[in-house]
Design brief:
Elements lengths: L2 E5 L10 H10 L3 E3 L9 E8 L23 E13 L8 E19 L9 H9 L4 E9 L5 H5 L4 E2 L2 H19 L6 E11 L9 H12 L4 H10 L6 H10 L11 H11 L2
Antiparallel strand pairs: 1-8, 2-8, 3-4, 4-5, 5-6, 5-8, 6-7
Helix pairs in contact: 5-7, 5-8, 6-7
């Protein structure tokens, strides 16, 4: 099953059919509340990626040399926050949406220019390059569902990216982790992205939600028996044969067998990469 998480900003709606385009546009103004018993914050993630179209997607590779003593400009994205995935399936012709991601957090976008030396694209290395005069970097950020008060007060002003702004962002990430560890019950989560899937050759796209549900349960180290029991309590109609198939594909064949690190890694490759 070929799947890919995309932020709502990254989705090219022009390449989607009408049903998926409509759903993505609806999501941009949609939210879910943590008071809903089916909505829980299940994962805290920090990730970074390069978002240029004209350079390598690897975050550890220096930008291309232009031949005039400088390097191409680049854009760099950093996200820290918590997610809750909603198992809503929207069928398309060639691609379908098999889950929707809601959450809270902050997305930081860096634009690095006037690069005069090959630099590692980590946050700290970019800030160090700026301090040494080897590059210029400015940032902006987007807030997803953060409670008012100390979180917004911690945010540095939009502007030049340097060691001082990094300290502010690090402080904010620590506050986000503290917030995630609390039992929040009444917070509106913003729509952040969708998990898309190419047409599935094995069983057809109608089983994509069941495959995704099974993969999530494997990541949570849940046995096949417990996953089936949970699926029967959910309002969504899941295909139990498809759940069992996905467990088997990841190497779990016994009803009571608990997922281990190798099988969890296989499930993560299916839905998280």
């Amino acid at each position: 099953m070929a799947t890919k998480w995309q932020s709502l900003e990254e989705v090219n709606v022009q390449l989607l059919d009408t049903a998926l385009r409509t759903r993505v546009n609806e999501l941009k103004s949609e939210s879910v509340n943590l008071s809903d018993p089916d909505i829980t914050l299940s994962e805290f993630r920090v990730y970074q990626k390069q978002v240029n179209r004209n350079v390598s997607s690897s975050i550890s590779v220096a930008p291309y040399f232009k031949g005039d003593g400088e390097y191409d400009d680049l854009e760099f994205r950093y996200f820290a926050g918590a997610f809750s995935d909603r198992h809503r399936f929207t069928k398309g012709t060639d691609t379908s949406i098999i889950a929707e991601r809601f959450g809270l957090g902050i997305q930081i976008d860096l634009k690095v220019t006037q690069i005069k030396s090959a630099i590692n694209l980590g946050f700290g290395m970019i800030a160090a390059a700026v301090e040494m005069g080897l590059a210029e970097a400015n940032y902006s950020y987007k807030i997803y569902a953060l409670p008012s008060g100390e979180f917004h007060d911690t945010l540095p002003k939009v502007g030049r990216f340097n060691q001082q702004s990094i300290k502010q962002f690090q402080k904010l990430v620590n506050k986000l982790k503290e917030l995630y560890s609390k039992s929040l019950t009444n917070l509106e989560l913003s729509a952040i992205g969708v998990l898309t899937s190419d047409s599935i050759k094995e069983d057809g796209t109608e089983n994509a939600p069941s495959y995704y549900f099974a993969a999530r349960r494997i990541i949570e180290a849940m046995s096949l028996r417990d996953a089936i029991k949970l699926s029967r309590r959910r309002s969504e109609p899941y295909n139990e044969d498809a759940i069992q198939y996905l467990y088997g594909r990841c190497g779990i064949t016994g009803l009571e067998e608990k997922p281990i690190s190798s099988t969890i890694s296989k499930a993560k490759k299916i839905i998280l990469e």
